[in-house]
Design a protein that fits this description.
Elements (H helix, E strand, L loop, with lengths): L1 E8 L18 H8 L12 H14 L10 H5 L2 E2 L5 H17 L5 E6 L2 E5 L3 H28 L27 E4 L6 E10 L2 E8 L7 H28 L9 E7 L4 E4 L8 H22 L4 E8 L4 E7 L2 E7 L6 H16 L7
Helix pairs in contact: 1-2, 1-5, 4-6
């Protein structure tokens, strides 16, 4: 079943802080589940202080969400993937496999480059929440701590470990590695989360939690093993990205792609936010997404919708094969055929076969 329509919508601008979305992002309890454990485990904690500490930590994870800045990307809450050629991707995968083979205590791994996912051994739902936790919380705090250390002229905090020891020469070490709860694996449970960063490349290592804390010697071995290999991999990734530059984007078009199967997102939405016209388009994208959600509930899995706004701008929504693609065209006096041509051109340039045209 295929559905195609054109809609004219009267857009009224409101301040960004009043934006409301009927589609909800991943609920806060999903973060709590991965970062702390299911809520039912609180019943097993006999001490009131332990329960209070768990609930306080759980609520704190949702405070990083700035509601006034939310848009359709927060509705999807997806993961940005790094596009690589087969050779570079396989070398990245071999690197992760080598890490897990050299350190048998590592059960799962996740590799990021410039906040884009390169490789993961986790279920997409676990990746979704861990990705948000690492990119939105751990990495910004680590960057700030290193910046303050440099400003103060101190090298004590300039560590490549985002989580773990501040310094590898500490005589007295207390394990501060966060513990996360992975739910979508064969044996759900708590894991130590070690995050190690070299330039823009980040590897997340998950080690089963046991009674004994992680020892400083393990971090020293990881640092000696990872640094040079990650530096080599960075060179390869940069070389590939330099050889395949992104085609230039028209300044008056923006797009959002979302794959509901692996939660992958790709977009150019947040590059030009802040003016009334752009904010109205962002709300139009959310409205169009809600329209597609309703179509899906009625059994229509493929659709194409063109929305013409009172500002004479266009918003296009396409849905097919569990993939969604939205385009905002801030260009006036375009015919329906011209807008359709713009949408097809963006599909060809940006998605390169990963989106099946409806």
């Amino acid at each position: 079943m295929f559905w195609r329509a054109m809609i004219t919508w009267e857009a009224t601008w409101r301040p960004p802080c009043t934006k409301q979305f009927s589609s909800k992002p991943t609920p806060p309890h999903a973060s709590s589940l991965v970062l702390f454990s299911p809520f039912w485990t609180l019943r097993t904690e006999t001490r009131l202080s332990s329960r209070r500490s768990s609930m306080t930590s759980s609520n704190g994870t949702s405070l990083d969400l700035r509601l006034a800045e939310c848009d359709i990307l927060n509705v999807f809450d997806g993961v940005q993937f790094l596009p690589l050629d087969r050779t570079t991707f396989l070398r990245s995968q071999c690197f992760v496999n080598l890490v897990e083979a050299t350190f048998p205590t590592v059960s799962h791994s996740l590799l990021l480059y410039d906040s884009n996912l390169v490789w993961s051994g986790l279920n997409p739902e676990d990746v979704q929440v861990v990705y948000r936790y690492v990119c939105n919380s751990l990495l910004p705090k680590h960057l700030k701590a290193n910046y303050l250390a440099k400003s103060a002229g101190s090298n004590a905090r300039l560590s490549r470990f985002v989580t773990g020891p501040d310094c590898l020469v500490d005589m007295v070490y207390s394990d501060k590695t966060p513990k996360v709860y992975l739910d979508k694996i064969q044996r759900p449970g708590f894991f130590h989360l070690i995050v190690y960063k070299v330039q823009d490349l980040v590897i997340c290592l998950f080690l089963p939690k046991n009674k004994d804390p992680l020892r400083l010697e393990l971090y020293r071995q990881l640092d000696a093993f990872l640094y040079e290999r990650m530096s080599e991999l960075i060179t390869e990734i940069k070389s590939y990205k330099k050889s395949t530059p992104e085609p230039p984007e028209a300044p008056d078009t923006r797009y959002v792609y979302f794959n509901t199967m692996n939660l992958a997102t790709k977009d150019s939405l947040r590059e030009r936010k802040g003016n009334p016209s752009s904010d109205a388009l962002v709300r139009a994208l959310v409205r169009l997404h809600n329209h597609n959600v309703n179509l899906s509930k009625e059994g229509c899995l493929s659709s194409e919708t063109f929305m013409r706004m009172s500002t004479d701008h266009w918003v296009i929504g396409r849905m097919s094969n569990f993939r969604q693609f939205y385009i905002a065209v801030e260009r006036k006096k375009l015919s329906l055929q011209e807008v359709d041509d713009v949408a097809k051109r963006i599909c060809e340039n940006k998605l390169k076969g990963i989106f099946f045209h409806v």
